[in-house]
Amino acid sequence: MIRYILTCTILSFLFAVNAQNVEFKAGNFKDDKDGFKAAVEAIKKGDEYFALGNEAIFNVKGPGLNYELALIEYDKAQKFNPNNASLNFKIGVCYINSPYSQKGIKYIYEANKLDPECDNFMKFYYAKALQLDNKFAEAIKAYEAFEAVYKKADNFNKFVSKGKKECRAARGAVASPIRAWVDNVSALNSEYNDFAPSVSTDGGEIIFTSDKPNGHTPNEAGSYDKDIYSSSLSDGKWAKPEKIKGGVNTEADDISNNLSYDGTKMLLHRSIDGQMDIMESTLSGLNWSSPKEMPFQISSKKANEVFAAYSDDGWSIYFARDHATRSNGFEVMYSSMQSKIQKNYMAAQMISTVNSKFNDGPIYIAIDGETMYLASQGGDSYGGYDIFVSEKTQGTWGKPVNMGYPINTPYDDFFFSTTANGKYAYIASNREGGKGGFDLYKVTFWGPEKAPVMATEDYLLASIVNPMKDNSIETKVDVNKKSFTVFKGKTIDAMTKKAVQANIEITDNATGKVIETFTTNSATGKFIITLASGKNYGIAVKAEGYLFHSENFDIPKGAADNLVNKVIELKNIAVGSKIALRNIFFDTGKSTLRPESNTELDRLVKLMKDVPSLKIEISGHTDNTGSASLNAKLSQDRAQAVVNYLKGKGVAAGRMTAMGYGSSKPIASNGTADGRQQNRRTEFEIKAN
Question: What is the CATH number of domain 484-570?
């Protein structure tokens, strides 16, 4: 019994010792003087960066690399002595003011346990840690305790008032969440910072920014510059993100801002020599062009400009600007074009109704032109950046309204980008539970409350277990006042199924007015536009060497949130065009057509009937295996077999000729099996039209 009591006493003593604040004094480290000296030097160096970071934060500016560089030094000292309150406090502050905010909580808690008086700002950051930990009532008390002893009559008190206000708002929001799921898009995220998503109007394509290792030289803090990545959605799954092709990504920070509604242009901002400017890149085929800096009215030389967004009508650019003399960080502005032809922008104007006393932006303008989504550190935020919505009434943007929990949290939640129907959106957040610092999240709005159709538990699990597809259009969500239909598709060759670049005109048939003219992608044939519901539209498609295509379609009024996905097959009518029929199959060494050839042959039948003036030559080709005479006969017989099939389907014999060329016209080397396979083919050539 005595031994048991003695053991407990020793353990209690050891626990008390471990909980004590161990000062960085030489007397505490007599056995390791060199380690002590190195740790003190590291703290001294880290303190220089720490002071610069604090100054920036309390001036509503970005801290740059200062906290990262401070952490490198503090980590050296922390390994030597992890039980110092002041050092734990400083490490916690560095993390809390970084994308990795959650990591700071345990250090602040530890510092407060070791010595709650270790720093004048201990109570303030203890309150911040409690706030991030969703302990809002305790956080308010900690803010009040700090406020009671911190009597300096300067601008800092606004941060204390802000913190208390955020906790009260967050407490109410968590108790009354909005009808939405917020799911981590793990397929797109890494252990680094993935943010700035911009999704196509149909939800099938996304671009975003990441600072994951990219093969470039890391900076002095060991982190990499930011590059822009893209991914496509197929069968409900995002493909592995890849760097976008072309001239956008450099060794500077390249940060995606906003895709145009048709997906052919992109706004981004880039950091060059310490200044951030807005640029624009254009998609041509699979490649994005080298970005061009926006005019001086937007990308000025006297300020930083970031987070640009296109307006719904293409006349304006919305963005955030940080004047060197401005004490409230970034503010939302816009600049409109005087002429779409010359793109002469007017002087930028501040949107006073949406700006707060803290950083505002990024911005996203919904396709209805009447809804603005913006991130802000001010207003009725729950902490960090929150996403707000502002509605335009009689030409004026209204006061931003917090979008609610779980979209917003005490962490940084920003970069809102939505699909055309308003049902899905993508955001960036560094909330707890992510893979890295900032992660990408998908928001799914439930819509108006309805009678339950499944067990509550199953309903809440459905967002991850059985997610809805982004590019399928479901029940209407009344986020935007106007209803729109996404019209997407691609233009391809009717025979080869390969992409064709084509010019498309969309006409409002009621007025006869051409409302949209665009060119499909040269590499993929893809296009995507958004049309107002309640109209009958005409579509005219033209491509050089192809038959003109036109049709009309209705989008009834009230048919909101539809998706029209159309593949437009164009018929090649250019004289001299040769098209290989790769899906024509014969029995080995014979001219007997196999049944699996019928699909390809029937497409050719349709082309001949759709273009009655077309005259063609059907040609057969072999590799060089065997005698030339046998190859010539076999190729002739096979060409004739195709002609006979077409005749049997009603195509006039006078419009077709059969020619066998044997092995005389190879298109690949006969020295390989693959080359010989390519040379064994059936073709048709347009001879007249």
Answer: 2.60.40.10
